[in-house]
């Protein structure tokens, strides 16, 4: 058989792991996930390492690359990684949530395979099981543009990933016990930048080095657990060029609020006196401010960083106004040659409106978080497997949560596995309303969406007149300020089981999440890939015969 014929057969078949995506490069990784002991805030504590690293290794890919990643779980409990912002087109099988996959048992391994299809930009990965994210195992995931696609700025001298996040000196197991006992995790103990916090004693090694006169790209992601952070660099401005997978209008900022689960790309030019400078990340909207810092060093520079740190802005209004300044670059090409602005989302008729209101209360004396009065409980059988094996009725009852919040008291919470059916290709408006005193950050797997409005007060249909229907940024997270609402719009065109969750791990773990079932009713390969042959099976489907595969 000729090589070309063999490749053709491979391209038309379903491989042992997933569908083969012909003509696009494959990147292979092996990760050993282990415990270790480090002192990120000066106190020895158990952390979770990937290949001995904290944070984990960066994944450096290009649009349409295929990632094959073999994870060996050397922990003493099940483990699962999710790929925050990667859309997993037709492939929720690899999304890494408890509603789509069985966790990897201790002492075993699982090989993920997915394609970064038609995406560019800055992303992250982190563990979704238990409270493992509070131990580490998170890292950056970048998707570079293909060489044939123009990027709306000159190539930088180098490309750096900056992972900022608040941090606890309690271990992830201690924090989980707190939540399981019905209590909150309380306040974190510090802020880390790439797993460290500069002591400021003159002995700190630089996190990054810049050549005088050169421009660098910094990908800044908030991998934390509780708080929004403000990020700034002494004496240097930042030009925003990308936000959560979209090229933006290139505004310049002295500092940026980076919310949980969010990533920005900025350009920074080394045009100051050649010496050391601090990059600073500090908590926002908190009574007591926690600050982390790290050194940027000019090559051949002389002189320490000034101990006087640049101040962060104060209050919510500044952050809301910064959000409103973000605009989609309509003329730039993203993953494909056509300009981003060629997709006119503002001219599509809305098929369905879903209004979601978050709440916090107690059930049997224990803290729970809810959406429209429903607090999600993970099932032993992943929802996607239950759906595929046609035993969903034994695992969940769809549409328990309605499209509008109930008229009952806000503190009444029902604990149930929370799944909402959405018809494929429906164009849906989702309203997030936040009656609480703390900012909420939401993430949707499998999609990007247009964040068209964010305002104080409560939402009414009349508020649609204030929507940005021209150049709202296409992104994967949305922030809802206290006593405020936010609106997003998207087409649900990616079949699968997709998680909508709070980006605050405590709230997610205690129920502030649900799943959207965009069902492949036709069981067609045009809409969705088959269940991978190496998929782990658990729960009630463990010993069931595998269903017939999807057909063309």
How would you summarize the topology of this molecule?
Blueprint: H1 3-12, E1 26-38, E2 45-50, E3 59-62, E4 66-73, E5 81-84, E6 109-115, E7 121-127, E8 139-144, E9 159-167, H2 172-180, E10 190-193, E11 208-210, E12 215-222, E13 229-233, E14 238-243, E15 246-247, E16 252-253, E17 255-258, E18 263-269, E19 276-283, E20 291-298, H3 316-325, E21 352-363, E22 366-371, E23 374-376, H4 383-388, E24 414-416, E25 419-422, E26 427-434, E27 440-444, E28 449-456, E29 474-475, E30 477-480, E31 484-491, E32 496-502, H5 505-509, E33 513-518
Parallel strand pairs: 1-4, 3-8, 9-12, 11-20, 21-26, 23-24, 25-33
Antiparallel strand pairs: 1-2, 4-6, 5-7, 7-8, 9-10, 12-18, 13-17, 13-19, 14-15, 14-16, 14-18, 19-20, 21-22, 26-31, 27-30, 27-32, 28-29, 28-31, 32-33
Walkthrough of the structure:
By secondary structure, this protein is mainly beta. The chain is built from five helices and 33 strands. A hairpin with a 2-residue loop joins strand 14 and strand 15 (246-247). The strands form seven sheets. Strands 9, 10, 12, 14, 15, 16 and 18 form a seven-stranded mixed beta sheet that branches.
What would CATH call the homologous superfamily of the largest domain?
Answer: Cupredoxins -  blue copper proteins
CATH architecture of the largest domain: Sandwich
Count of spatially separate domains: 3
- Silhouette: globular
The CATH class of the largest domain, by name, is: Mainly Beta
Low-pLDDT residue intervals, each spanning 5 or more residues? 1-20
Mean pLDDT: 94
Helix fraction bin: under 10%
Helix/strand class:
mainly beta
> Which sheet architecture does the biggest sheet show?
7 strands, mixed
* Count of individual helical segments: 5
Say how many strands there are.
Answer: 33
Radius of gyration: 23 Å
Percent strand: 35-45%
GO molecular function: copper ion binding; oxidoreductase activity
InterPro entries: Cu-oxidase-like_N (IPR011707), Cu-oxidase_2nd (IPR001117), Cu-oxidase_C (IPR011706), Cu-oxidase_fam (IPR045087), Cupredoxin (IPR008972), CuRO_1_AAO-like (IPR034273), CuRO_2_AO-like (IPR034271)
Keywords: Glycoprotein
Family: Belongs to the multicopper oxidase family.
């Amino acid at each position: 058989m000729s090589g070309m014929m063999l490749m053709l057969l491979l391209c038309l078949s379903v491989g042992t792991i997933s569908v083969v995506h012909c003509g696009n490069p494959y990147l292979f990784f092996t990760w050993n996930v282990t415990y270790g002991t480090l002192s990120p805030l000066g106190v020895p504590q158990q952390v979770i390492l990937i290949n001995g690293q904290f944070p984990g290794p960066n994944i450096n890919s290009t649009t349409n690359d295929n990632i094959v990643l073999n994870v060996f779980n050397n922990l003493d409990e099940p483990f699962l990684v999710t790929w925050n912002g990667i859309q997993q087109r037709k492939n929720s099988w690899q999304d890494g949530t408890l509603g789509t996959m069985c966790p990897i048992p201790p002492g075993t391994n699982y090989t993920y395979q997915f394609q970064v299809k038609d995406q560019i930009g800055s992303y992250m990965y982190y563990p979704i099981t238990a409270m493992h994210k509070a131990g580490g195992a998170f890292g950056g995931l970048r998707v570079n543009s293909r060489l044939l696609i123009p990027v709306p700025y000159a190539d930088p001298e180098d490309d750096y990933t900056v992972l900022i996040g608040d941090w606890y000196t309690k271990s992830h197991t201690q924090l989980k016990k707190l939540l399981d006992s019905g209590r909150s995790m309380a306040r974190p103990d510090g802020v880390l930048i790439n797993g460290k916090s500069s002591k400021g004693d003159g002995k700190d090694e630089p996190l990054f080095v810049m050549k005088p006169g050169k421009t660098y790209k910094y990908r800044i992601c908030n991998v934390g657990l509780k708080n929004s952070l403000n990020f700034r660099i002494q004496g240097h401005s930042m030009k925003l060029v990308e936000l959560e997978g979209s090229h933006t209008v290139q505004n310049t900022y002295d500092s940026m609020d980076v919310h949980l689960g969010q990533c920005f790309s900025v350009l920074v030019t080394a045009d100051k006196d050649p010496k050391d400078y601090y990059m600073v990340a500090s908590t926002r909207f908190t009574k007591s401010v926690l600050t982390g810092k790290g050194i940027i060093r000019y090559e051949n520079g002389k002189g320490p960083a000034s101990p006087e740190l640049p101040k962060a802005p104060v209050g919510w209004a500044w952050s809301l106004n910064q959000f409103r300044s973000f605009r989609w670059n309509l003329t730039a090409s993203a993953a494909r040659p056509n300009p981003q602005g060629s997709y006119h989302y503002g001219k599509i008729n809305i098929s369905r409106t879903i209004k979601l209101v978050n709440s916090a209360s107690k059930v049997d004396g224990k803290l729970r978080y809810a959406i429209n009065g429903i607090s999600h409980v993970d099932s032993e059988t992943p929802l996607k497997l239950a759906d595929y094996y046609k035993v969903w009725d034994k695992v969940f009852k769809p549409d328990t949560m309605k499209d509008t919040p109930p008229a009952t008291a806000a503190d009444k919470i029902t604990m149930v596995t929370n799944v909402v059916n959405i018809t494929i290709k429906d164009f849906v408006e989702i309203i997030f309303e936040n009656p609480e005193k703390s900012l909420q950050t939401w993430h949707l797997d499998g999609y990007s969406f247009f964040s068209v409005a964010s305002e104080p007060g409560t939402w009414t249909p009349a508020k649609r007149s204030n929507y940005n229907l021209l150049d709202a940024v296409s992104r994967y997270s949305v922030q809802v300020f206290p006593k405020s609402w936010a609106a997003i719009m998207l087409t649900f065109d990616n079949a699968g089981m997709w998680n909508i969750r709070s980006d605050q791990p405590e709230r997610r773990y205690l129920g502030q999440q649900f799943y959207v079932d965009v069902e492949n009713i036709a069981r067609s390969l045009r809409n969705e890939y088959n269940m991978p042959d190496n998929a782990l099976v658990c729960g009630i489907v463990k010993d069931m015969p595998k269903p017939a595969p999807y057909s063309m």
